[in-house]
C-alpha cells in the first residue's frame, strides 16, 4: 500500500512497486528501471472517450493484404509477409546480419516501385551507401535517414510501404527523458513507433540488440508491445543463419527460415535438408537418419552417437542438439526393454550440421543410433527411422508422416521404419515402409 501522499515507484521490467526510489530493483535486480508512477486523475480515468463504438461482425473482416519481403524464408517465419500496421522486433547478436537482411528487404521492396524508409541510428549515410552498393540495392524508392531522434525521423515518412528502425536501442524520443538505450527511452521509442504504425497502417520493423542471456535488451514490456518478435541466430555455424519467431500475432512461431551469409549479402538456402545430412548413410555404426518437422517443413537430420569406454565412476552422457534428459531416458528404455547390456560406456550424441532437435519424432532414430554405437551393428542403408518412443518401449505415431516420407523419398531414401499404429499415409513417392510396434522390433528389422 502506498503511504498517504507518498510517491510510488514501479519497476518497468517486472512490475515491482516500491515506496522509496532506488537505483536497483530489489525483485529482478535490474538497474535504472524503477520509475515514479504518475497517478491518473480520477475524473480522467473514469471518463473514457467521446467516441461511440459499434461492434463489428467478425465474418465481414477481411484478412490483411501482406507485403512480400523478397525472401521466402522471411515470409515463412512472418506467416506470409509484412502486415499493414504490424510491428516486428528483429533481435540478434551484433554482427549477425540484421541490418544486412533489412537493407536487402528494403532493396527488394523498392525495386518493385514502392517506397521504403530505413532509419538508422547506428550508421552514417556513407556507411549505408557503401553497404547498399555491395548489396546491389541502389534503387530509387529506398530512402535512408541517419538520425537518432525517432520523432524527427518519422516526420519524414509519407507514402512509404515499410519503415525500418535500426535500432530501438540507438534511438530516443523527445517524449521521454534519459539516454538512448535506457529502459525508459527504449520503451517510449517503441511506443512512438507502435502508435505510428497502427495510426498509418504501415508495417514497421524495429531492430533490437540482445543481451548476454539472449534476451532483447531493454524492458520486457518491449516484447509485449510489438506484434511479432523474430530472432536471427547463427545456430553454431559461421555461415548459416536461422530466423525464428518467438512471438507472432499474425502467424505461427514454429517456422524456421535459413540463410547463408555471402560476400554480397544474405542468400536463402533453398534445400536445407542437404545442410544437415552428410550422406554418410549406413556406412558407420552409430549414424542414423530421421526426418524431423521444423514448423511445416520436413528436414532430414543425421544423428550420430559415439560410445567409448568410460574412465569415470559415472559414465558420461553428452548431447549436442539433443536434450540430455532425452538421451538418458532412451538409454534406460534400451536397457530395460531391449535387453542391451549394462551401459558402462560414455555416450556422446550429436546432430550433424548444428541442428537442434525438439521433435519427438526423432526418438526412434536416437535410440537406434545409441544401440548401433553400443553394439557396433549398422542400421540398414538408405533407411530412415521416424517415431516417438514411450517408456514402455513402444513406437508411437508422429505428426506429418506423409510429408516426412515424401522428403525422405525425394532425397533418395528407399525405406523408412515407422510405427505400426500410423495410418497408411497417402504417398505418390516410392518408399518401403517397415512398420514396427516397439524399439526392440525396430532394432531387429532395421539392422
Ligand atoms: P550486419 O548486418 O551489420 O549485422 P548486425 O546489423 O546484426 O549487427 O552484418 C555485419 C556482418 O556481416 C559483418 O561481420 C560482415 C558480414 N557481411 C558479409 O559477410 N557480407 C555482406 O555482404 C555484408 C553486408 C556483411
Ligand atoms: Mg546493424
UniProtKB/TrEMBL annotation:
Record keywords, A-Z: ATP-binding, DNA damage, DNA repair, DNA-binding, Hydrolase, Metal-binding, Nucleotide-binding, Stress response, Zinc, Zinc-finger
PROSITE patterns cross-referenced by the UniProt entry: RECA_2
GO annotations of cellular component type: cytosol
Domain of life, per lineage: Bacteria
Region annotation Lon-protease-like: where it falls in the sequence: 346-447
SUPFAM superfamilies recorded: P-loop containing nucleoside triphosphate hydrolases, Ribosomal protein S5 domain 2-like
Domain RecA family profile per the UniProt entry, residue ranges: 63-210
Short sequence motif named RadA KNRFG motif, residue ranges: 247-251
Gene3D superfamilies registered for this protein in UniProt: 3.30.230.10, P-loop containing nucleotide triphosphate hydrolases (3.40.50.300)
Binding locations of ATP: 92-99
GO BP terms, alphabetized: proteolysis; recombinational repair
GO molecular function: ATP binding; ATP-dependent DNA damage sensor activity; ATP-dependent peptidase activity; damaged DNA binding; serine-type endopeptidase activity; zinc ion binding
Role according to the record: Plays a role in repairing double-strand DNA breaks, probably involving stabilizing or processing branched DNA or blocked replication forks.
Homology family: Belongs to the RecA family. RadA subfamily.
Entry-linked NCBIfam families: sms (TIGR00416)
Protein's recorded name: DNA repair protein RadA
Organism: Pyramidobacter porci
Amino acid at each position: 500500500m502506498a503511504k498517504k501522499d507518498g510517491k510510488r515507484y514501479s519497476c518497468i521490467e517486472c512490475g515491482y512497486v516500491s515506496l522509496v526510489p532506488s537505483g536497483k530493483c530489489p525483485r529482478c535486480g535490474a538497474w535504472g528501471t524503477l520509475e515514479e508512477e504518475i497517478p491518473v486523475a480520477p475524473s480522467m480515468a473514469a471518463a473514457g472517450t467521446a467516441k461511440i463504438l459499434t461492434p463489428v461482425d467478425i465474418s465481414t473482416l477481411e484478412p490483411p493484404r501482406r507485403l512480400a519481403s523478397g525472401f521466402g524464408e522471411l515470409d515463412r517465419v512472418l506467416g506470409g509477409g509484412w502486415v499493414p500496421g504490424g510491428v516486428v522486433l528483429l533481435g540478434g547478436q551484433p554482427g549477425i546480419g540484421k541490418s544486412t537482411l533489412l537493407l536487402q528487404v528494403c532493396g527488394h521492396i523498392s525495386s518493385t516501385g514502392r517506397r521504403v524508409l530505413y532509419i538508422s541510428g547506428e550508421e552514417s549515410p556513407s556507411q549505408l551507401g557503401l553497404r547498399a552498393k555491395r548489396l546491389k540495392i541502389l534503387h530509387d524508392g529506398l530512402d535512408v535517414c541517419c538520425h537518432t531522434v525517432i520523432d524527427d525521423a518519422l516526420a519524414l515518412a509519407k507514402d512509404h510501404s515499410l519503415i525500418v528502425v535500426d535500432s530501438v536501442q540507438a534511438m530516443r524520443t523527445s517524449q521521454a527523458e534519459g539516454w538512448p538505450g535506457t529502459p525508459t527511452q527504449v520503451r517510449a521509442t517503441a511506443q512512438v513507433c507502435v502508435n505510428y504504425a497502427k495510426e498509418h497502417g504501415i508495417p514497421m520493423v524495429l531492430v533490437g540488440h540482445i543481451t548476454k542471456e539472449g534476451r532483447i535488451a531493454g524492458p520486457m514490456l518491449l516484447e509485449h508491445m510489438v506484434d511479432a518478435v523474430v530472432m536471427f541466430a547463427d545456430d553454431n555455424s559461421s555461415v548459416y543463419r536461422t530466423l525464428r519467431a518467438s512471438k507472432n500475432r499474425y502467424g505461427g512461431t514454429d517456422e524456421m527460415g535459413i540463410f547463408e551469409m555471402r560476400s554480397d549479402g544474405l542468400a536463402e538456402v533453398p534445400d536445407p535438408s542437404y545442410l544437415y545430412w552428410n550422406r554418410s548413410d549406413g556406412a558407420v555404426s552409430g549414424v542414423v537418419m530421421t526426418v524431423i518437422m521444423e514448423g511445416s517443413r520436413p528436414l532430414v537430420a543425421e544423428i550420430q552417437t559415439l560410445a567409448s569406454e568410460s574412465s569415470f565412476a559415472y559414465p558420461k552422457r553428452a548431447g549436442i542438439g539433443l536434450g540430455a534428459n532425452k538421451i538418458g531416458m532412451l538409454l534406460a528404455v534400451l536397457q530395460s526393454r531391449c535387453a542391451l547390456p549394462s551401459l558402462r560406456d560414455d555416450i556422446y550424441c550429436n546432430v550433424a550440421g548444428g541442428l537442434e532437435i525438439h521433435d519427438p519424432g526423432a526418438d526412434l532414430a536416437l535410440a537406434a543410433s545409441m544401440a548401433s554405437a553400443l553394439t557396433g551393428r549398422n542400421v540398414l542403408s538408405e533407411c530412415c527411422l521416424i517415431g516417438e518412443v514411450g517408456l514402455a518401449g513402444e513406437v508411437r505415431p508422429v505428426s506429418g508422416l506423409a510429408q516426412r516420407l515424401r522428403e525422405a523419398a525425394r532425397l533418395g531414401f528407399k525405406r523408412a521404419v515407422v510405427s505400426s499404429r500410423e495410418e497408411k499415409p497417402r504417398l505418390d513417392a516410392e518408399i518401403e515402409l517397415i512398420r514396427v510396434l516397439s524399439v526392440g522390433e525396430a532394432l531387429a528389422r532395421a539392422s
